[in-house]
Amino acid sequence: MIAKLQFYLKRIQDGRLKEMWTQTLWLYSYVRKYWFSIVLYTLIGLGGTGISLITSLLSRDLVDIVTGHKSNELLKTFIMYISFTLANVILSKILDYIATIISLKIDNAIKADIFEKMLLTRLEPLMSYHTGDLLTRWSSDASVISDGVLNWLPDLLIAIVRFLSALGIVLYYDPLFALLAIAGMPVSLLMSKTLLSRMQSRNLESAALNAKMMGFHQESFSNIQTIKAFDLIPLYVKKLHEYQKEYLQLQKKYQKLGILSSVFLSFIGLLVSYSCYGLGIYRVWSGTISYGTMTLFLSLSGTLTGTLNTLVGMVPSAINITTSSGRLMDIIKMPREDHSAAPKIDAFYQKNKQDGLSISLQDIQYAYAHGDTVFEHTDLVIEPDQIIALIGPSGEGKTTMLRILLALLEPQSGSLSIQNAKDTSVFVDYSPAIRRLFSYVPQGNAMFSGTIAQNMRNVKPDATDEEIITCLKTACAWDFVHKLPDGIYSTIGERGRGFSEGQVQRLSIARALLKKAPFLLLDEATSALDTVTEHRLLQNIMQKRAAGSCIVTTHRPTVLTICDKVYAIREKHCELLSSEDVDKILSNQQ
Ligand SMILES: Nc1ncnc2c1ncn2[C@@H]1O[C@H](COP(=O)(O)OP(=O)(O)OP(=O)(O)O)[C@@H](O)[C@H]1O
């Protein structure tokens, strides 16, 4: 017997129930802040239960008064009955209102929290998720939780209290009636157990398919141009139909299970109701109870079966909520960036900026989690006031090196620091907070939709129009911005719509310059420019910037002529090229 108990206990500890419990605990760490509203909601719900029980008792009295012709008590009882019924209606509406407000607040809190945590999650684990999947988890899963959170503990408590109080009253009057009224209970419990196990896998399946579909929609809409250019419209429409078919089939299975269980429960409920009805009639016929008590019994037996069905109906909702909590926990569990060194880095910068700052990478080893080793025993030194080029064949590791410099990726070994260029014993260690010393222009479009000025002020909210224009001039972007009717208040569409690739690159560089960080990283950020503009731009940057360094990755040898140092990334190393090597590259190009 003990062995059997231990076996079941272990199953609970290891199994789905333990997981559900962990997910529920996590969920309530969010909901805790709203304890006052939730307690209020629960109390109003319990109050509603009390009122509906009193209404049942009053209906009994009313029937007894009518059948017993006690007309002097009729008006008083009737008014009380109507008042309690109205109070019940009003209370249930108040409850709906409170539930909506709590649910909205929880929705906002969860979404804001997950949003921040997603942005703070380390880049590499986050990159293993499709953005469609992240979006589904952030929007749908958070909504499932906020919508359903009140179905779980408060409603569970209300339903249990309602069930027990109704049972108590019936037991008080007639134990046999009570036994009959809860005869459906074992079937309902069995049903909830079956529902629980069947729905778990369906739920995960459905969430995964939702995420896949979201990813498909998102990619299709953001790649409309490619779809049109390759004449892929029929293919994408077909793909959508396939996804929809898969979704429909899954939902059909889901619905069938729901319908079957509710038909079955209704059948059991009817059986119980009719039996209660029969027993009630028999009791009245044999003179044991009055008509009023029979009415009370019938109404309470309805409450008992109804509440049991509600409790079983909570199973899918509880599974939905805990599945969604689990999916959000997957994201939240991922390692997060530590920005706590920000004040230390600010102080270091203020103290040492006059001497200039240098970056030192020593003996770096880096491999992507699901990829090959990109760097092995690599050193790199970035000195102040220099333009440094990183060159190398495609796929060799230029962008990866910039991500390491930005602390977006963390090398598996090696040391990284930012030092006082004149006294290298004064330094700060690398951490994500180091990014405040960097400006970055990634490959591809990096502008947000909004005006040019809004994009610029994202990095320096108090920038004046003049400051913005100065940076646009340095980045050779003023050439075209000043011709726009709205100048710096012209709107940039989604993904830079309305501007050419080279124009967007110049706007991105202007924004990076506005940040005035000591290190500027340009990842093929001038690739769409003609060589004359590219030269002018890089020269402007070095002439007009205060002390600082610019690191450019490029496939264009012409850029090398204005660089102070050139590193070639080859065979997992950064190799400093001699001026002869650079000359050779340039002459090969000619
Ligand atoms: N998220 C990632 N996960 C796994 N491997 C990656 C990831 N990103 C890049 N890589 C791999 O790392 C290597 C270096 O890529 P990286 O983008 O740094 O090259 P690159 O020199 O900048 O190339 P390009 O000149 O084409 O921009 C490549 O082999 C690439 O496949």
From TrEMBL:
PROSITE patterns: ABC_TM1F, ABC_TRANSPORTER_2. The keyword Transport does not apply. The chain crosses the membrane at residues 34-58, 78-95, 257-282, 294-319. It is found in: Cell membrane. Its main location: membrane. It comes from the Bacteria. GO terms for molecular function: ATP binding. Keywords: ATP-binding, Membrane, Nucleotide-binding, Transmembrane, Transmembrane helix. Residues 39-320 form the ABC transmembrane type-1 domain. CDD domains: ABC_6TM_exporters. InterPro entries: AAA+_ATPase, ABC1_TM_dom, ABC1_TM_sf, ABC_transporter-like_ATP-bd, P-loop_NTPase, Type_1_exporter. Residues 359-589 form the ABC transporter domain. Signal peptide: none annotated. It is a multi-pass membrane protein. This is ABC transporter ATP-binding protein. It comes from Jutongia hominis.
